[in-house]
Amino acid sequence: MKEQQTAVPVEQTTKRRKKKRNSSKKPIPLIKGTTGASLAKKRQQESSSRSQRRKRRRDGESGSKGKVNNDQNSLFASTAESLAVISKFHTLNKRLEQTERDTNLTESERQDAIRKIRDEQEALGGLDRYQKASMYGAKSSKFVCADWVVPLLQRQRAQKKQNEKRIQEKSRRLRILDVGAIDNQYHGKGYDEWLDAIPIDLHGGQHESVLQIDFFDYAHDYCSGIDRYKVEKTDKTTIKSSNHKVTESKPTPRPFDAIVLSLVLNFQGDPRKRGDMLALASDPRLLTLDKEGMLFVALPSASLDNSRYCDLERFVEVVTNPLFGLELVEQKVSAKLVLLAFQRNAFYSREAKQTRVRKYCYDVDTETFDYGEHELKRLQPPKPGAKRNNFAVILKSSQNRT
């Protein structure tokens, strides 16, 4: 007979298994003085160190690979510092606009207040430091306006080609007016064969191809039949932004296929001038009547989200009013930016071409704006909140301004 096996109690078996599992968790020496736990800790420290180095490179603090080798790097320790400069400069600029319009001040008081504000701007580093802060932030950010604008223009261009297959001649280059261009984002990226970008900025920017001129002055001259960019560049054989020969300005320069207002409207301190800027940007003398004509607007999200007198819906209502002949075709909203692409309304384009009757909001001779029944005030009632900003866009005819 086989011997009967002694039954092992269940509790004893469970204890043995538990003891075996615990023994397997003990660090196994890999080499003398090193354990699995210490090696894992070392790897975690190395990973944390790499993450910190990557973050410093993104902020521009250090790191040879991520560091942008230009002059403005020495001015800022981090992206946060450059953003603080931009924000402060915007605030001072708005105060300057308000002071210039303040009718409660005597002329001497106004000039004294203006001088103090400008002294604050100079103490901050002046416009040069503001522009370098903008470029520094752009290089640290993933957003490049041209990367958003160009694909939409390519799509529009492809659709136009498809609709005009009967035309055998070579397609003309699209023309962009880039307003507030600190540098030229469209040059040297493979767009030059089909895209001609005209960059302008109130203070000249940080690139030699940027024309130093106020948008209102440039638009006034353009509506009068003068392309100031070409006039200013006639002493050169080529325009570096587009690598093509300069021709004399024609009596009626061709309207642009697209106009870009990237972080420009928020820099303008007067809400009435923001409306005037949109009116000029949509003017058929400046923006083509073709239904492919586009207006691109980029704004900080805070301008709309934290405003007392405006929001996204109201802003779109202003831009798409019947006088401007535009419709919203793309909208992108993030925590930092609002990107809006508007296209020439097909009905507006067709009617204007057929009737040949075009009502312009801007009168070149009198240099005044007339919005008629389409005037728009600030959003009312104001949204509550002590920390909200006063960003707004107003359409108010010149004769109704006080």
What would you note in describing this structure?
There is one protein chain. This protein has 402 residues and is of the alpha/beta class. It folds into 2 domains: 71-137; 143-163 and 171-400, Rossmann fold. The protein has helices spanning 10-24, 36-59, 79-101, 107-124, 126-140, 145-163, 215-223, 228-232, 271-281, 301-305, 312-319, 346-355; strands spanning 174-179, 195-201, 211-212, 238-239, 244-245, 258-262, 294-300, 326-333, 337-344, 362-363, 368-369. The strands form 3 sheets. It has a 7-stranded mixed β-sheet with strand order 3-2-1-6-7-9-8. It has a two-stranded antiparallel ribbon with strand order 4-5. It has a two-stranded antiparallel sheet with strand order 10-11. It is globular. The model is unreliable at 28-32, 60-73 and 235-249 (pLDDT under 50).
* Top CATH class of the largest domain: Alpha Beta
Strand order of the largest sheet: 3-2-1-6-7-9-8
DSSP strand count = 11
Biggest beta sheet attributes: 7 strands, mixed
Query: What is the helix tally?
Result: 12
SS content category: alpha/beta
Rg of Cα set:
30 Å
Estimate what percentage of residues fall within beta strands: 5-15%
What is the N-to-C succession of helices and strands?
HHHHHHEEEHHEEEHEHHEEHEE
CATH topology of the largest domain: Rossmann fold
Count of individual domains = 2
Top keywords for this entry?
11 strands; seven-stranded mixed beta sheet; Rossmann fold; 402 residues; alpha/beta; two-stranded antiparallel ribbon
